[in-house]
Amino acid sequence: MRRGAGALMAVGALLGLALQTTPASADSGGAPPASPVSQTVAESAQARAAGVWTADRMRAATPVEDLLDLGARAVQRAGQAVPRGEELTVPPLGSQDGAKALPEAGGPWSGGGDVEKTTGRVFFKMGDRDASCSGDAVTSDNGSTVITAGHCVKYQGAWHTDWVFVPGYHDGEAPHGKWAAAETLTTPQWEADEDMNFDVGAAVVDPLDGKKLTDVVGGQGLSFNADYNTEMYSFGFPAADPYDGEKLIYCSGTTFQDVLLTKDHGLSCNMTGGSSGGPWFTEFDEKTGKGLQSSVNSFGYTFLPDTMFGPYFGEDAKTLYETAQAG
């Protein structure tokens, strides 16, 4: 997410624009979702990617939000309606006990559990710049699927390169390895015009040392077409002040629906740049660190500090996940 001075117009101009546009909505009808778009990564590029990201280079990577202007993009257009179908949940690997404690507006995660392994930093080249996001390993048929934000895989028509996922990252360390993407994917709406309502991305990573990703770190569950205004937890690796990207940070509380220019979930949260793509969970169990991923960190309005927004996981997010897990 981005909170820089250039991210949004002045609040007065924003409110004027809001009066002139019709915000997107969660739509229970309409045509079936279009197919996601993807890029296949050559084996030679996959082999190169993991070697690119030394500890020093990972620490020095720029939070991708510092290279983008996502808040302004949200202001420029209201976006399409978000197709909504029947609710679907995919359980996490293992069991949950149901323990939770709310709220938290931002702080280091010290609860342990699976989330410390499944959540990680994402590193990639955006043009000639080293950049970082966050991501999450999820339960999948291929055992190799990572969910992140759309702008963490593609921006302004260009796919990011040298893309790796580092689950369990901390202090420059990659305790579970660096997993190079064999394929990156995003929604057709993000690919077409970077509609913030569909800022969801995915990656299929290659096996490492003969093992699949979720065999090593486990996989979180997912939830699609669920309710708004519910208790959720968000996680990520913010790397802009006051954070440095070296620790897993979380927020928790009751979400609300954005009433301005998207139909995203909103959450009181002080995470900064570098947290984009980190998972949002419903039914999160603080004891086991497991939950149902229902969104990702996406963007923030400059005039609304300490608030994070994440896209609604509707039919298009579900189709993206199903396509990725079949890869």
UniProtKB/TrEMBL annotation:
Residues 23-38 have a biased composition (Low complexity). Transmembrane segments: none annotated. One of its GO terms (biological process) is proteolysis. Residues 1-26 form the signal peptide. PROSITE patterns: TRYPSIN_HIS. GO terms for molecular function: serine-type endopeptidase activity. Residues 23-43 are annotated as: Disordered. Keywords: Signal. The keyword Signal applies. This is Peptidase. It comes from Streptomyces nanshensis.
